[in-house]
Automatic annotation (TrEMBL):
Gene Ontology BP annotations: protein export from nucleus; protein import into nucleus
Keywords: Nucleus, Transport
Natural source organism: Marchantia polymorpha subsp. ruderalis
Keyword match Cell membrane: no
Residue stretches of biased makeup (Acidic residues): 998-1046
Cellular component annotations (GO), alphabetically ordered: cytosol; nuclear envelope
Name under which the protein is recorded: Importin N-terminal domain-containing protein
Single GO MF annotation: small GTPase binding
Length: 1129
């Protein structure tokens, strides 16, 4: 193989590269860095990648081979898509050698080179279709491989390696190449793969399936790994598309897949390492069945009976205890196959006769309490909750979206069965006869037959009695009732169609009695809690108090006996959170708050974590109901959080992070509850302000403990605090700043030390992708407002705090920390954050100008702000995107305040001068400003402050441009003309906005009187709509089944919407538009006289060859009659 590479012309020899690769795996860090640097420098050497490829196959030692393959994979990931990475001839040679070597290596080198091959194949074969010789080469390799030609080890290639290559080139086609197209044709490359590779490979697949049948008792065969790769390849090929060649031979593949699934073993545990490939093969075969049903119905409807028989037979097998997790996954997929079949048109006819047997023999036994459940409850409570009782408080995605274990899949299938028409039983026949004499009711089919939930599921579950308190957990009474409650939780969609009386009867007879027992089984009680949360969307209002009392009792239930009751308390908290999110709110909020606070005081951190999550949800949902209790609650919770804050610089535990989140939610609830001035004669507002003092003290104490801790001897801790919970902590700090009115209160609350620590923390902010910065910007705005009310001593001058001394962190003034954060957001944050940062820059600029050393500070700020904003502005695709607006306005403020300094910054990176000495960047920004100031701009200027700023900036810029003689037609002159036209438009717009403000105020009063009648009319319309909708519901016999064409059209439409959304998000952020920007003293300026003076001095020059629309001239003269003579053409 080495002879294939001519390294005679290579400046760096293969031996040298091999030595560097060995050194990268050495123990000495300096040598590793040096070797890595040498390799990086050598990557431009001719045939460098080919040399790495040779070493990965023929290196002197395994470590060197692995290092070569790893470096090659990373090199290709970074550079292969670049055409300049290597010459065309070298690329062709490398590709061919990569395939040759891939077919011979093994172990971890094979895995690494397969990934390298994928990178090349995706770019050259899938995207550019520039590798026509690849498929023929793989077909030849298959024919010459060890398993096909029978030569064994003497064969040139390994069949397993060849199939890894086949799987790799299929993988890019598992999804639609262009999802925005409704019916995308099968890619030519995939058709070629199907015809030239997969169809011939079926003979090998058939042979290996026969091996599986012959080795059922052993549970493994010699070539199970090859069979698994074949299954994966076939699955990937049909996942989205159906190649014609495979469609013609689909029956043969399907027949072998059915034989394969008949060999599934569930009556004994297969946990030996050599049996794992077979387990994964069975799993993949079931996934193929699910994919065929959901994606390729027109090809497989005739195979549905066979698939139904296979899945039912698999689910009816006796199951061994302690099955391997992959066997559990196989059972789960068997349930999914039945569910997918049931959702098809002919599915009900195939499955309805088996509903009863499925429920009794497959679904319910899966839902019953098992010994494995009890063991997991004891060993790993969190995993038990995640798998069996998921809630919105967990990170689990939910059952229907993530069906990974049999119980979850069985629940999903039960829900589908319950909402289907009932099976043709004797009971159903009697109901049909009775229904013929009256109109079919809700939940009935067009022939009057009731749903399976009504005829089969509920009667079946009703046979299991409530277990008495003394019943042992291992008794059938407890195990069965555990399963019954789990089953009720899967009937949410069915119960939504039932009357509230039926739901009430179910809860009162099957759930509530558990809460009145002395000591019910904790396993059953946890399921009851979860069930109440699952039924949140259909709970009757009259049971509100009973439901909340039951869940609060469970939330505070102590441990009884040797079994932990934490899952009981966690499931109760999850159910309460779900009820709140579903707008099923309690009649009395105080008991719920008291229970959450009591939970937060529990000694065990895990218990307090659950309670704090619940408290945050209660605060967000309760709003005005919770607000009166916020001062007392925050004081109670603050102490518990402080007790768990670790010494610096250790990261905070989850309990502290969730505690900050809960207190931040309470702070927002309190702030939003500010009463009107005239409410209750002003007493309400006075009481609220008194509460603000209490709340501010509590928040300050919490932040001091987090950021300004002291050691036991009373001295300050010198370590810098960790950057934990900055978003929530910023919410608390913003509240402290908002409620601070003078310097005395600021000193008491230690506002300045807190602000300086916080400013240092946010200056290192790098979590823009998490989009949790809104509270930070809010705190910045509050800090600036406080500085205006009560100037802060160290706002602009740094002070070395004990909490920061002795650390490597630079000591910054408060202002410097804020500016660093804001400029970082402008330069690289997502658009909405960049908008918020731009809004803050206006406030910072005007606040700093009032300082004693304001002029010098303003120069520094202008320098940093203009640099950051202009770089982001130039990086935009065009000046008309939404994000351009805030960037242009920041430079406008800087230019109006300090025009000379702003122009110098704009020209720092651009020495090029155009026309009469004006910098290119100044004219670029002027053009962007003119575009933004046009009346028809989108997004344009809508607020008075924005328009006034642009008028002032346009005036300042025009005066600068007109200060020198410019030739007509020059770039500077054209920009000046555009700015002049925009100046006229924005001046008129400003006048109109100012005149309409008073009119709008009076209109608001009038509109309040007419709201009632309009609402009543809308209500009438809604009633008509609801009546017509109900008529439509009555007239529709059954739900419309989405066709394949409709599914593909919906899929493509969603993909197009996501593409547009991605484009808008990249340069959008207009949700932040419409908020006032700070003008400072500029707000007092009336630019009307300056505009008229400029028109008088320069209008004639600029109007040369500039055609103004008649509408603009008419509007301007109408608002400013004295300008008629000035604008005469």
């Amino acid at each position: 193989m080495e002879a294939m590479v001519n390294l005679a012309t290579v400046g760096v020899g293969k031996d040298q590269i091999a030595r560097w690769l060995s050194e990268t795996a050495g123990p000495h860090e300096a040598a590793v860095r040096a070797a890595t640097a040498h390799l990086e420098a050598a990557r431009t050497v001719p045939k460098f990648a080919l040399c790495l490829l040779v070493l990965s196959a023929g290196g002197d030692e395994k470590g060197q081979r692995v290092a070569a393959a790893t470096y090659l994979k990373n090199y290709l990931r970074n550079h292969w898509s670049e055409d300049s990475a290597m010459p065309a001839v070298e690329r062709l040679e490398f590709r061919n050698q990569l395939v040759e070597i891939l077919l011979r290596v093994d172990g971890i080198v094979l895995k690494l080179l397969a990934e390298a091959f994928r990178l090349v194949a995706v770019n050259d074969f899938a995207r550019k279709t520039s590798w026509p010789e690849l498929v023929p080469a793989l077909r030849t390799a298959i024919q010459n491989s060890d398993l096909v030609n029978g030569a064994g080890e003497a064969s040139e290639f390994k069949t397993f390696n060849v199939l890894i290559g086949v799987q790799t080139i299929i993988k890019p086609f598992q999804y639609f190449m262009d999802p925005t197209v409704a019916r995308e044709p099968v890619p030519e490359q995939l058709e070629l793969i199907g015809k030239e590779l997969l169809v011939p490979l079926h003979s090998i697949f058939h042979h290996l399936v026969q091996q599986v049948a012959a080795s059922k008792d052993e549970g493994a065969a010699a070539h199970d790994n090859i069979l698994l790769v074949l299954c994966k390849s076939f699955h990937l090929a049909i996942k989205s598309h159906m190649p014609v060649s495979l469609a013609l031979y689909l029956g043969q593949w399907f027949q072998d897949i059915m034989v394969l699934l008949q060999m599934v073993v569930l009556d004994k545990t297969l946990d030996a390492p050599h049996q794992y490939h077979r387990l994964k093969t069975w799993k993949r075969a079931l996934q193929i069945c699910c994919n065929l049903i959901t994606r390729h119905r027109k090809y497989v409807d005739k195979y549905l009976p066979s698939m139904s028989h296979m899945a039912l037979k698999l689910l009816s097998q006796n199951r061994s205890k302690g099955l391997h997790p992959m066997q559990e996954r196989i059972i789960s997929l068997a349930f999914d196959v039945v569910s997918n079949i049931l959702e098809t048109g002919p599915g009900w006819r195939l499955m309805a006769p088996h509903f009863s047997n499925l429920l009794e023999s497959a679904i319910f036994p899966t839902l019953r309490l098992s010994e494995e459940d009890m063991a997991e409850w004891e060993e790993d409570e969190d995993e038990y909750l995640r798998k069996n009782l998921p809630s919105d408080m967990d990170e689990a995605s939910g059952w229907k979206e993530d069906l990974l274990i049999p119980r979850q899949s069985a629940i999903n299938l039960l829900g589908l069965i319950a909402t289907s028409k009932g099976p043709p039983t004797t009971v159903a026949a009697k109901k049909v006869a009775a229904m013929k004499r009256k109109k079919a009711g809700k939940g009935k089919g067009k022939d009057g037959q009731g749903t399976a939930g009504e005829l089969l599921v509920l009667p079946f579950l009703s046979q299991f009695p409530l277990p008495p308190p003394e019943a042992a957990s291992a008794s059938d009474l407890v195990k069965n009732y555990y399963g019954a409650l789990m089953a009720y939780g899967g009937l949410t969609q069915f119960l939504k169609t039932q009357s509230p009386d039926k739901v009430s009867f179910l809860l009162q007879t099957r759930v509530f009695p558990l809460y009145t027992m002395g000591t019910p089984s904790p396993y059953v009680l946890a399921n009851a809690n979860w069930l109440l949360g699952e039924l949140a969307a259909c709970l009757p209002e009259e049971l509100n108090e009973d439901i909340y009392n039951a869940l609060l009792k469970a939330l505070l239930a102590p441990n009884v006996g040797d079994v932990s009751w934490r899952p009981v308390r966690a499931s109760a908290a999850g159910a309460l959170s779900t009820l709140l999110q579903e707008e099923y709110k309690p009649v009395q909020w105080l008991p719920l708050l008291q229970a959450a606070v009591a939970g937060a005081r529990m000694v065990e951190e895990g218990e307090a974590t659950i309670a704090l999550q619940l408290l945050a949800n209660v605060a967000e949902a309760g709003e005005d109901h919770v607000a009166p209790h916020v001062p007392a609650i925050t004081a109670a919770v603050q102490g518990e959080i402080c007790r768990h804050i670790p010494p610096h610089p250790e990261p905070w535990p989850q309990m502290v992070e969730l505690g900050f989140s809960a207190v931040a939610s309470l702070a927002q609830t309190w702030d939003s509850a500010e009463p009107e001035e005239d409410e209750d004669g002003g007493k309400a507002l006075e009481n609220w302000k008194m509460g603000c003092i209490t709340v501010a003290n509590t928040f300050s104490e919490l932040l001091q403990r987090a950021w300004l801790p002291t050691s036991p001897d009373g001295s300050s801790v010198v370590a810098a605090p960790p950057p934990s919970c900055l978003n929530d902590a910023s919410t608390l700090l913003a509240a402290v700043l908002r409620y601070t009115n003078d310097s005395t209160i600021a000193a008491t609350l230690k506002v300045e030390p807190l602000l300086q620590v916080w400013a240092n923390l946010i200056s290192e902010w790098s979590a823009w992708e998490e989009e949790e910065d809104e509270s930070v910007f809010e705190a910045i705005e509050e800090a600036i407002l406080l500085h205006g009310r009560s100037p802060l001593r160290h706002f602009t001058v740094a002070d070395v705090l004990p909490a920061l001394s002795g650390t490597s962190a630079p000591t910054r003034s408060i202002l410097e920390g804020l500016v660093t954060f804001v400029t970082s957001a402008i330069e690289g944050a997502y658009p909405a954050a960049a908008w918020r940062a731009c809004r803050c820059t206006h406030a910072i600029l005007h606040a700093s100008s009032l300082a004693f050393e304001g002029e010098e500070i303003s120069k520094v700020l202008v320098n940093r702000f203009v640099q950051a904003t202009f770089r982001r502005l130039k990086a935009l695709s065009r000046f008309t995107v939404p994000l351009a607006k805030p960037l242009v306005l920041v430079i406008a403020t800087c230019y109006v305040c300090l025009p000379k300094e702003t122009e110098q910054v704009l020209n720092l990176e651009d020495d090029k001068k155009v026309d009469e000495g004006h910098g290119e960047n100044l004219l670029l920004w002027g053009e962007a400003l003119a575009i933004l100031s046009e009346t028809e701009a989108d997004p344009g200027l809508s607020l008075e402050c924005e328009i006034k700023l642009c008028v002032l900036a346009l005036l300042k810029l025009l005066e600068r441009l007109m200060s020198k003689e410019m030739a007509e037609g020059s770039k500077g002159f054209l920009v000046a003309q555009h700015c002049f036209k925009s100046l006229l438009e924005s001046t008129v717009d400003l006048k109109e906005v100012q005149e309409s403000s008073s009119i709008d105020d009076s209109d608001d009063d009038d509109s309040d009187d007419s709201d009632g009648s309009e609402d009543s009319d809308e209500d009438d319309d809604d009633d008509d709509d609801s009546n017509s909708n109900s008529d439509d519901d009555d007239s529709s016999d059954e739900e419309h089944e989405e066709t394949e064409d409709e599914f593909l059209a919906r899929y493509a439409r969603t993909a197009r919407e996501l593409d547009l959304q991605a484009i808008e998000e990249a340069e959008g952020g207009q949700d932040e538009d419409g908020q006032d920007i700070e003008l400072g003293v500029l707000g007092l300026v009336n630019p009307e006289c300056q505009v008229m003076t400029f028109i008088k001095d320069h209008g004639k020059t600029l109007l040369t060859k500039l055609s103004l629309s008649k509408d603009l001239v008419s509007r301007f003269i109408d608002k400013f009659p004295g300008s008629k003579q000035l604008l005469s053409q």
